[in-house]
Amino acid sequence: MNARRNFFKAGASIVGAAAVSRAGAATLPEAASRSTAAMQPPPLPPNGRPFQPIVTLNGWSLPWRMKDGVKEFHLVAEPVLREIAPGMKANLWGYNGQSPGPTIEAVEGERVRLFVTNKLPEHTSVHWHGLLVPSGMDGVTGLTQPPIGVGKTFVYEFVLQRAGTFMYHPHADEMTQMAMGMMGLFIVHPRDPRQHRVDRDFGFLLNAYDIEPGSATPRVNTMLDFNLWTWNSRVFPGIDPFVARSGDRVRIRVGNLTMTNHPIHMHGPHFEVTGTDGGWVPKSARWPEVTTDVAVGQMRAFEFDAVAGDWAIHCHKAHHTMNAMGHGVPTMIGVDQRDLADKIARLVPDYMAMGQNGMADMAEMEMPLPDNTLPMMTGTGPFGALGMGGMFSVVKVRDDVRPGDYRDPGPYRHPPGTLAYEFKGTLETPARAAAPKPDATDLQVCKPSGHTGH
After folding, report:
1. What is the pTM of this model?
2. Which of 130, 207, 259, 271 is buried deepest, with most CB atoms within 10 A?
3. pLDDT digits (tens, 9 = 90+) for 75-103
């Protein structure tokens, strides 16, 4: 207990979440920045304690510098332009050029120093979600620290107490700032790099936006009715695939900063939940699953042994795998729209009658859309339109993928005899059992009994 108390005192007395002086600003580590949504395979750590880096979907890991045995990072909170998917960009807030911000990676037991510069139009802070830090480093504006004012730089410093999967995000005007995309992964690797080791380690955050068709800035006061459900501020087909080699042990880390839970379902191999934001799950407490529900504010890490194929992975809430949906879209199944469509087309030449036989035609027909607007369903595969969007990607496992190679290997080549096919033979009309004849007791009529009250 005394050791832990001393840790908190030491962490708070060294810096505190305090503004950086002009002289101190000259010694800031470089604030690396990226604007591309292409995934950056991480290099091995150049210094500090060794660890196996993770791969951030459509993202990257923040570089650091070592100074007097402390690992120093520099986050810049700022407006960013994020491509949600090809054909649509959004005006968001994030860190170091992207939303979510870059992944921060360090090792259990290391001391980290994080400089946070505010280039937003309002004050901010950073909360280290799930990390045990001194109270004065917890990042709750007004409670544990003053706000980071516009143009100011604050410093957070603490020792990483335990390994696991964590996040960072503001606790200042958070309804606005998280709705605008301010968040990032914080990964603390085990002190022993052999512990919890896997062959491939992926990570992403669940976030959601309400962006009206034709616009580019999220509506920040939306509570539940979001229309873009994203992984790392991307929707399918803009989300990276998870590429692995047959037999690889694969870990996927997921954090949820939306307003609802997400049952993440993976086709193909069964997996085990091996970690939460509370720590690693002992082997004796794991069980096989194909879906794990990630509640609001939770982290989950699950692992599986890769099997060759293209395996869908997605949120199992069906409307979370579509784009730009709305309650105002009527259901037209079974409605003959031919006469109506002809009349409307005289007034609106581009009008298309859709939905009479279901919604699948929306994935195949190119409807006129406002600029900077994604269709409800999009994405194609080797057999045609997928009819998916939003929180959807593919685990692509091949026998010939090399270690460290995360490039999309293209469509899977199914071995002979393993692909579903159309039956072109003759189907006989099946014999159906005759309806049973009514029993005599079924024809009895209830007669008045002469008693009152019946």
Report:
1. 0.84
2. 207
3. 999 999 999 999 999 999 999 999 999 99
